[in-house]
Amino acid sequence: MSRVVHWLQTREQQLFYIVNRKIRHSVLDSVLSIVTHMGGATFTIAVTLLIGLFGSGSWSLAGWQSLAALAVSHIPVAVVKRKYPRRRPYLVLPETNICKNPLTDHSFPSGHSTAIFSVVVPFIAAAPVLGFVLLPLATTVSLSRIYLGLHYPSDCAAGIAIGTCAGFGTIALIS
């Protein structure tokens, strides 16, 4: 079993370095430093609350579903971060490119990835054509977390899974 774990860790580090070091560009540095905040608390709460309050019909419903999914999704994130503390990659891996003011709390799972996917799923369910814009945007937010040296790929994958499940769960419960 330890050979499998070692193999997985090695592949994850390789993938991390591809995203974090190999595709560096000054334009990406600027763009991803901005895009990453679309998965942050301020942006996700503000957008969902505004759409819930001021949207009409299915838009308002999707806004409230997204806000509920956002709130619910962060319960498992908080629990897992405490139960399985994982140091951020820039603290562990040498020669990691990092952003300004890097976070120092635990990295697993990615809260930004969780947030953005929990928010976009109800909107995509309300208007599937939005998936062509929202899924690439949410994926870019998740990749930005790796690019900025704040998360491993598995942190983001776990966040995507939690956020997606929370989004679908709230759609099922709040209709």
**Number of helical segments with 4 or more residues:** 8
| Largest pleated sheet | none
Helix vs. strand class: mainly alpha
Global morphology: globular
Low-confidence stretches: none
Distance between the termini: 44 Å
Helix coverage percent of residues?
over 70%
Mean pLDDT: 94
Order of helices and strands: HHHHHHHH
Global Rg: 17 Å
Please report the total strand number as a whole number.
0
- Taken as a percent bin, the fraction of beta residues is under 5%
Describe the structure.
There is one protein chain. By secondary structure, the chain is mostly helical. 74% of the residues lie in helices and 0% in strands. It has helices at residues 2-22, 26-35, 41-54, 58-83, 89-92, 111-126, 131-147, 153-173. α6 runs antiparallel to α7. The mean pLDDT is 94.
Brief sketch in words of this structure:
The chain is built from eight helices and no strands.
List the helices and strands and how they pair.
Layout: H1 2-22, H2 26-35, H3 41-54, H4 58-83, H5 89-92, H6 111-126, H7 131-147, H8 153-173
Helix pairs in contact: 2-7, 3-4, 4-6, 4-8, 6-7, 6-8, 7-8
Sum up the structure in keywords:
mainly alpha, 175 residues, single chain
